[in-house]
Write a structure and sequence with these properties.
The complex is a heterodimer of chains A (159) and B (724). Helices cover 40% and strands 13% of the residues of chain A. Chain A is an alpha+beta fold. Chain A folds into 2 domains: 3-72, Beta-grasp domain (Ubiquitin-like (UB roll)), CATH 3.10.20; 80-158, [2Fe-2S]-binding domain (DNA polymerase, domain 1). Chain A has a 5-stranded mixed beta sheet, with helices on both faces. In chain A, strand 3 (48-51) and strand 4 form a beta hairpin. In chain A, helix 2 crosses helix 3 (101-114) and helix 2 crosses helix 5 (137-158). The longest helix of chain A is centred in the last third of the chain and has 22 residues, at 137-158. Chain A is globular. The N and C termini of chain A lie far apart (47 Å). Chain B is α+β, with helices and mostly antiparallel strands and 724 residues long. Chain B folds into 3 domains: 4-198, Aldehyde oxidase/xanthine dehydrogenase, molybdopterin binding domain (Aldehyde Oxidoreductase, domain 4); 222-294 and 352-431, 2-Layer Sandwich (Aldehyde Oxidoreductase, domain 4), CATH 3.30.365.10; 300-344 and 442-711, 2-Layer Sandwich (Aldehyde Oxidoreductase, domain 4), CATH 3.30.365.10. Chain B is built from 18 helices and 29 strands. Chain B has a 7-stranded mixed beta sheet with strand order 12-13-10-20-17-18-19, sandwiched between helices. A 5-stranded mixed beta sheet of chain B has the order 15-23-22-21-16, with helices on both faces. Classes of the chains: A alpha+beta (159), B alpha+beta (724). At the A-B interface, helix 1, helix 2, helix 3 and helix 5 of A face helix 7 and helix 17 of B.
Chain lengths: 159, 724
Amino acid sequence: MAIKLTINGVNRQIDLPEDTPLLWAIRDGVELTGTKFGCGIAQCGACTVHVDGRPTRSCVLPISAIAGSNITTIEGVESKAAKAVQAAWNELSVAQCGYCQSGQVMSATALLENNSSPDESEISNAMNGNICRCATYGRIKTAIKLASTKLENQGAEHG
Amino acid sequence: MDKLKEHGLMRAVNRRVFLQSSAVGLTLGMTLPSATTAETAKLGKVKNTASINAFVSIDLDNTVTVLSKHVEFGQGSYTGMATLLAEELDANWQDVRVEAAPANKALYVNKLLGAQGTGGSTAVASSYQQMREAGAVARALLVAAAAEKWAVPAVEIDVSDGVLTHAKSGLKASFGELANAAARQAVPEEVRLKEPSEFKLIGKEGTGRKDTGKTDGSAIFTQDIKLPGMLVAVVAHPPRFGATVAKFDATKALQLSGVHKVVRIPNGVAVIADSFWQAKTAREELIVEWDFSAAMSASSDEQMLEYKKAAEKPGIPAKVVGDIEAGFSNSEKIVEAEFEYPYLAHATMEPMNCVVQIKKDEVRVWNGCQSQTTDQNAIAKATGVPAESVYIKTLLAGGSFGRRASKDSDYVLEAVSVAQAYGGDAPIKLVWTREDDMRSGYFRPMFFHKLRAGIDAHGKIIAWQHRVVGQQIIAGTRLEFLIRDGIDFTTVEGANDLPYKIPNMSLEVHNMKSPVSTLWWRSVGSTHNAHSVEAFMDMLASAANMDPLTFRLNNLNDDPRHREVLERVAKESRWAEKTPEGKAKGLALHKSFGSYVAQVVDMSIDDQGEYSLDTVTCVVDCGIAVNPDIIRAQMDGGIGYGISPALMSKINIENGAVVEGNFDRYQVLRFKDMPVVNVHIVDSQEAPSGVGEPSTPVIGPAIANALFSYSGKTRPVLPFGIKV
């Protein structure tokens, strides 16, 4: 039986075996390829998406476990935090090879959606599960702080 | 290499070559679809584009497309190529985009490698002149087209930001308006290249990168390729080096939905299905009986014992200077050291993968391809299709660090073998899991080093004996002819060209045999040689009762660029200041790929005796700094890559099988452990040299030296962990 998921605001009937990990439902079922396969055991974070707003490793999550959930992928993020993160990433040329960066952006976005001014340790805790072999960690940290500053300023302007 | 000031006016362009290039650039550039969907898979010419030469085309909407012959895997080659070409073209930077060049050795050879390919940190160094010339020629053609159209002298036409202007008449035209007319102009015999004072893009900040789409999921990697009728293959690989398939039973696997075929290939048994998850699930249902009769049974620990034993005896001489025995007998003090380096996996974020389609008279390949010529030739040999009919669409690659420059095209040929065994002409995507990738071999070889040096009463090194024990990388490759008198240059690079003046030296090598396949790994020989040399230097400094900086300065050779980076890093890191309680710092210096790098690491040590890296000060002299921001990024990332083998990464082999399969056991640097990196680029007018690799080998010894200064303990075994 097909499993119902809402992916980037669109209701989908996913007609795949129920043990299929969400990652492959997204990549092969819905054909959104921004979410990456890196390790398959929730160790590297390249497959990070938001499940009901929470950053989640999609490579080990069977679709049967999240029927009815709301999934946001890198292609569908549109919160203020997400836009601020993407803008900061581009401004600072964070990405090198880029393969892990969808996951990095999703983790950073989830962090800032819940806490627009994280401190160093909150940033570290949120990002430590996302491996980057190009080691862009320094710029990721700077970009999160830049996005945070912009969000705070927006908040001040509109608040 | 030439210095910039010697450039100026030059006879740049062979007319015939470029005219040929125009035709071929258009044809080949369009032969293979850029292909992510069925719609884009149609073949044929793209209209509204004028191909100016092999490296640039201009659309009627003013878009300037630069064709990069160097793969983009994060090192910034796309931006580098675009910068060089757009500089001389006087293009509007915002209108410039980059595509991968097709595989065509005649047009896109990397002169420093002798084949089309990327590696050895050569992208900018090898293309600095060529891409500028291509841009200057394109500019000249546009000017000629404008002169013809406006009936004015070419010398009166200015070009700036993608617009041609004739000041006297007030006439103006964009690149796009003149593109087709430009493509019909005669290619000039000579073009003038800019003086550095005229640069608008080279050396400038704030230009951003041209490999876009990496923050919104739109960038397409091999993993993301979808083609009509494409199938996905997952392979059951031999669990031990040297094992082969005896027989297999695919009954259960074939019953699963989406599974098309299960086929035997030279590397194992391939499951071919509609999707990755189906193929992988079916692989788990395969019953494969392996033939272990020729399989490796040793462990890496056992191999290391053999290596150590070999190091007791003199090896093949790789470099001999003066009289080493006389040097030792005149020495005031003699110091010895040993270092153990494990196998290392590259562990790119994108595990290896490749799409292959075998048609009647041609083979099509979609791959984050690093060695186009090598791969074309290997595929030609495997399929009988001529190399020029092997079309490779080079895609963005999710990292390489050397892995994709496979010396025998291993994973590419595996994909070809699957397509051959499957039969028919469906495109097949071979996907490796992380475990397939990590256990595939092609590791940085394991090494054992033994060093012995003598210093005189003035703190001068007067004897230096260095034995390097390990496997040759280039044996059995197309580069094997470079092995001279038993010495593979990749074994000794970084040990044979020291920054220090040593009158009596003996560099010796023991070549070890092993069934474990090995490969270049970001900075290659320097990964171990720089570590041994630089960690040993601090031991010698200590024996001489000298500060590590002073000791190095005291022993430097005559190359002033070593001195400059060393003195600069001392200044920027405030080396002379006293180290506070609970802190330590370490220094290292190394030249690789033509670039000079010095680093100082500052660390903190906590109550538990664990250290953390606070700051790395990195000074680099890479000649003319084409893209300063990318140079900083490469120094930063290269340091991050080099921290892993110092602190935590190691591949173990037991009974011929790789123990680690994933990031749970093969530990790599994560966010929390990354130090702040401050990069300082030496202002230089020397020819540009590499930046992708040279920072990687320096950080490990800098950390070892900080630990040595703190605790007095040396670190003979890598990785050395996080305890002081």
